Amino acid sequence: MLSQEVLSDYREDWIERCVSSDNTDKAVLRDRGVFLLADESSIFFSVAESILTALYVPMNEASISGREVMLAFDMISSPLSADKRKELEDHCGNKLLVTDSRENARMSLPIMPVLYVPRVFGAGLEIEETAHKNESTHITELFSAALFLISRRDTLKHAAYYVGFGGCTIKGAKDVTSGSYERLMPYDDAVRMLEFSKQRPNDLFYFADTYDGQLQGLHKRLFECLDEFDRICRENDIRYFLGGGSLLGAARYNDIIPWDDDMDVMMTRDDYEKFLSAVNKSIDRDKFFFQSSETDPKYHSIFTKIRLNGTKYVTEFSKDHYHLHEGIFIDIFVHDKTSDIKLLRKLHVFLTLFARSMVFNKWADKPMHFYGKFPRICSLVTKLIRRTDMKTLERIQHRVVTMFDGRDTHYLYDGTGEHLRHGGFPASWLADVKYLKFGSKKYPVPAEFDKYLRYSYGDYKKPIPASLRKAGHDVVEFDLGID
Predict the structure, then answer these.
(1) Which residue, 199, 219, 253, sits at the end of a domain?
(2) I need a labelling partner for 251 at 20 to 30 A (CA). Which of 118, 165, 173, 315 fits?
(3) CA 320 – CA 38 distance, rounded (Å)
(4) Could you report the per-residue pLDDT of 142-192, keeping only the tens digit for each?
(5) Residue 52: left (phi > 0), alpha (psi -120 to 50), or beta?
């Protein structure tokens, strides 16, 4: 039996996926309104009600005359009462019956369209404890497909529709994916969530079986890289902070995020220059490698890394770039000064994005596209970068990123990191240091880490939806380097 906290976590994931899905024409639903008909104590009614509320769809009004859509759930686990079934059959407007009963589906087809959802399964849902690849439906797809159908006036005809991971035995049933519906969750992900909920009913879900079950081993090796970086900085009086997902993990879990597969540190440009002067003298070369475009001619990321020798961490991107050092790593990001003037900060971000894009596309040997914007300019720049050597492009990138570093400004920006688009933030946020537990030790974080994390992630205290808690790198070869 799942704890209430865990069940709520799964439910929030279902609702988030359905609300954010592009399948549903949300404007149509809001215009029509939806009348829900189900056993009001059932999970189907409560989750559907939460989804529609999140979509701002009016529903369940006292009078349904003139309402265009009635959505009814008549499931074996929570069947409609005789009165409610008659109310469904008497309703003259558009309606859709969702059922996991073949008998109910066949009986209803002459008078209303049916969404047949055999063998419904999902975390916390006991209707079907085992996921069957043939004739099975994850609970998320049940709600998403129902909303998909009722949001399309022309699609809602007297027919049987089907959503699932296999075939359907009802003659003539139409698979909703044969139209424009796109699945919200792969079958394998859905099964993993189901199995996790059975094995660990008191734990919040995350994809714990990545890296062939060696995720915790990867975490240990990442801490080795972090401790080497920390040692170099302490011995050379260099200030740094945990950054990105590592700072988030320290603030939320006092540890690495359970499903994370990398670590991040950050520092200001002045401290980074000190680090560059110290790292090649101080690093334990037998065990670690400091990776930059200077130490590894095949490497051209704007941020640098400390890699662990004797290990492998090959991604879909790096596998095409031979002779790179591809050991397990931590990322080192630099925060540079930017303008005190908002308009100039926006210009600085734009120029940085453009310069970074030039270097990356040169490295990837792809035409410049810049997020689909400025196609003519990108076409010209593509010709330019193909005729320009990488060192020149990297010098341009560096000058753009550091263009305000010699000036007396009060703002920084994430010029080398993932939060560049968020713009500038007050330099005072990184003025002072405090220490948070991260794993078995304490590491430095900004004293104003709460403000910095809200700048980076918004409401950082709220975990991301359960089904998105998985490792972020597309790894094709992995070796912990342990005999």
Answers:
(1) 199
(2) 315
(3) 54
(4) 999 999 998 887 777 788 898 888 777 788 888 888 878 998 988 888 888
(5) alpha
Domain that holds residue 282: 211-335+437-479
**Are residues 188 and 165 both part of a single domain?**
yes
Per the CB < 8 A criterion, the answer to whether 164 and 141 are in contact is yes
Closest Cα partner for 462 from 147, 9, 141, 2? 9
At residue 483 the predicted structure's pLDDT band, cuts being 50, 70 and 90, is low
Clarify whether residues 193 and 239 are in a common domain.
no
10 Å CB burial of residue 380 (0-12, 13-18, 19+) is: exposed
CA distances in angstroms from 419 to 2, 93, 389, 422, listed in the order given: 36, 49, 28, 6
Judge whether 172 lies within some domain: yes
How far from 299 is each of 111, 134, 383, 444, CA to CA, in Å? Answer: 65, 46, 22, 28
Tell me what the mean pLDDT of segment 436-448 comes to: 97
CB within 8 Å of 250: residues ≥ 6 apart: 242, 436, 437, 438, 443, 445
Domain boundary among 199, 226, 252: 199
101 and 230, same domain (yes or no): no
As a whole number of angstroms, the distance between CA 394 and CA 398 comes to 6
Q: What are phi and psi of 323, to 5 degrees?
A: 70, 10
The helix/strand count (H/E) of the chain reads as 14, 19
Write the Ramachandran bin of 42: left for phi over 0, alpha for psi from -120 to 50, otherwise beta. Answer: beta
β-pair partners for 268: 335
